[in-house]
Amino acid sequence: MQPRDLSDHVAYEAGRGIEEVARELDRDPSEFVKLASNENPHGPSPAAAVAIRETASNVSSYPKAAHADLTAAIAEQWDVDDEQVWLANGGDGAIDYLSRAVLEPGDDVLVPAPGFAYYGMSARFHHGDVREYELSKADDFAQDAATVLESYDGDRMVYLTSPHNPTGSTIPLEDVAEIAERTDDETLVVVDEAYGEFADRDSALALIEGRNGFEARDDVAVLRTFSKAYGLAGIRLGYAVVPEEWGDAYARVNTPFAASELACRAGLAAIDDDEHVERTVGTARESRAYMREHLEAPVWESEGNFVLVDVGDAERVAEEAQRRGVIVRDCTSFGLPECIRITCGTEEETERAVETVNAVLAEVDSGAESESDPDSQEVTDA
């Protein structure tokens, strides 16, 4: 007995954790700072941490009430009906629910390259096929309708990421609306706003609800998560907001109790913790600006809680920075072997990351110059 043919599937490659790296290098974990996975440098919402502790004694019960309460709270936040909020085990869980609701075997899904690997993974899990549209490094990874529509060929789902991971670029709502208008009636445009709190942009929910001068649409869905700005990555809590017409599909595609009791109670507390979110967003903006100003390598403008840096040899720079105690993301798995991604940390973490990466780059450049200098090479007679 063997599983079905998974040769077209790829494994998700997550950023490395401090404990993992410390064990590998036989070092004390306290020596390291992790800026590889776009986690919140201030930790979880304090209100959520309290809620988790208070809820611990209730985890023997299924989270029916908590699930309904959090759904209602999110719906109120966005001014949509409860049925339009699809809670999930992280944003990736919401992606799976949309795949279940939309895809028939052999349907095509159009995804950005570079981009979040799970878009394609979920499509393949649900027997779909994956095609890509390119976000060009030469164009600073700009996102617009023309770029997407040039590659579009009747695909059943089209993924947009705003802010985009790993580049930090965003796509204007006017372009999202154009994509939705010019694609087929049976094409779902999914706008992943996992980093939406960090961007000075309106949510694509305006297209679902017909706000801000846009007509209401039934072919756009929006993804959100509690992992980033709220600092709840470890409890896995995300959601999709779908058109009103889709409401009754959720019960047919979701897993029983799609989010845990702890996750729902933490989310209920975090969603009202505006102070924590504001602090987190402010830190990200300051960190982005500092890295763009002080890193001695090209840094793209970003509206996420990270920056993308062109270091020439990502694997070499990331490994050496890690050896010096700063864990950053080698973006080779994104198809960018010359780039690293650095999460926005606290002021101290950001300064340490900049100092470390600059020192590594200086040594790499110095080594390259030595190798190319004939006077530095040992010469022997033949």
UniProtKB/TrEMBL annotation:
<dbReference type="GO" id="GO:0030170">
    <property type="term" value="F:pyridoxal phosphate binding"/>
</dbReference>
<keyword id="KW-0028">Amino-acid biosynthesis</keyword>
<protein>
    <recommendedName>
        <fullName>Histidinol-phosphate aminotransferase</fullName>
        <ecNumber>2.6.1.9</ecNumber>
    </recommendedName>
</protein>
<dbReference type="InterPro" id="IPR015421">
    <property type="entry name" value="PyrdxlP-dep_Trfase_major"/>
</dbReference>
<comment type="similarity">
    <text>Belongs to the class-II pyridoxal-phosphate-dependent aminotransferase family. Histidinol-phosphate aminotransferase subfamily.</text>
</comment>
<feature type="region of interest" description="Disordered">
    <location>
        <begin position="363"/>
        <end position="382"/>
    </location>
</feature>
<feature type="modified residue" description="N6-(pyridoxal phosphate)lysine">
    <location>
        <position position="228"/>
    </location>
</feature>
<keyword id="KW-0808">Transferase</keyword>
<dbReference type="InterPro" id="IPR015422">
    <property type="entry name" value="PyrdxlP-dep_Trfase_small"/>
</dbReference>
<feature type="domain" description="Aminotransferase class I/classII large">
    <location>
        <begin position="31"/>
        <end position="356"/>
    </location>
</feature>
<dbReference type="GO" id="GO:0000105">
    <property type="term" value="P:L-histidine biosynthetic process"/>
</dbReference>
<dbReference type="InterPro" id="IPR001917">
    <property type="entry name" value="Aminotrans_II_pyridoxalP_BS"/>
</dbReference>
<comment type="pathway">
    <text>Amino-acid biosynthesis; L-histidine biosynthesis; L-histidine from 5-phospho-alpha-D-ribose 1-diphosphate: step 7/9.</text>
</comment>
<dbReference type="InterPro" id="IPR004839">
    <property type="entry name" value="Aminotransferase_I/II_large"/>
</dbReference>
<dbReference type="InterPro" id="IPR015424">
    <property type="entry name" value="PyrdxlP-dep_Trfase"/>
</dbReference>
<feature type="compositionally biased region" description="Acidic residues">
    <location>
        <begin position="366"/>
        <end position="382"/>
    </location>
</feature>
<dbReference type="Pfam" id="PF00155">
    <property type="entry name" value="Aminotran_1_2"/>
</dbReference>
<dbReference type="InterPro" id="IPR005861">
    <property type="entry name" value="HisP_aminotrans"/>
</dbReference>
<keyword id="KW-0663">Pyridoxal phosphate</keyword>
<dbReference type="InterPro" id="IPR050106">
    <property type="entry name" value="HistidinolP_aminotransfase"/>
</dbReference>
<dbReference type="GO" id="GO:0004400">
    <property type="term" value="F:histidinol-phosphate transaminase activity"/>
</dbReference>
<keyword id="KW-0368">Histidine biosynthesis</keyword>
<keyword id="KW-0032">Aminotransferase</keyword>
